[in-house]
Amino acid sequence: MKIRAFVLLAVFVLATGAPADARKTRPRIKGPVPVKVSKVVDGDTLEVVAQIWIDQRLHTKVRILGIDAPERRGRCPAERSQAKTAREALRQLLKGRRAVLKDIRYGKYAGRVVARVFNRDGVDVAKALLTAGLVRAYRGRRRKPWC
Question: Is the dihedral of CA 127, 133, 137, 143 positive or negative?
Fold first, then answer.
């Protein structure tokens, strides 16, 4: 039932293209929603596939809730280097390519959600990356520069 609600929610967002203000009042999915990680984009974003029904799969980008990682196309060489390190650390945390999403909510960009991400061992990847000092805590305000 939870996965079905997630699918309906995702389809509605993609179909309506509702403004960001309206997204703030929309419901969240508590999860857990098991997913297969298809790609680690950077230190705080991944692409996943969720099987939502028999032969029905949902492909989407997920930004990890509560963190900000350096950008791969950052302003300075130090930021770009830190971005590679953060992305590799996230890859290692998700090396089994299986993960679980919880507290799923709308992202501010179309087609992307924001969620807490746990690897197959139950490790909260945001907390692991924060503990390692590879990312910063992020609460949705203006991001601080890395350079």
Answer: negative
Domain ranges of the chain: 2-137
Helix (H) or strand (E) holding 55: none
CB atoms within 10 A of CB 76: 12
For domain 2-137, give the CATH number. Answer: 2.40.50.90
For residues 137 and 28, give the distance between their C-alpha atoms in angstroms, rounded to a whole number. Answer: 21
DSSP assignment of 86-145 equals HHHHHHHHTTTSEEEEEEEEE-SSTTEEEEEEEETT--BHHHHHHHTTSSEE--SSPPPP
* C-alpha to C-alpha distance for 125 and 107, rounded to whole angstroms: 18
The pairing of strands 33-42 and 98-106 is antiparallel
pLDDT tens digit at each of 147 positions of the chain: 455 544 444 544 444 444 555 555 677 899 999 999 999 999 999 999 998 889 999 999 999 999 999 988 888 998 899 999 999 999 999 998 999 999 999 888 767 899 999 999 999 999 999 999 999 999 877 778 888
Per the DSSP assignment, residues forming a β-bridge with 64 are 115
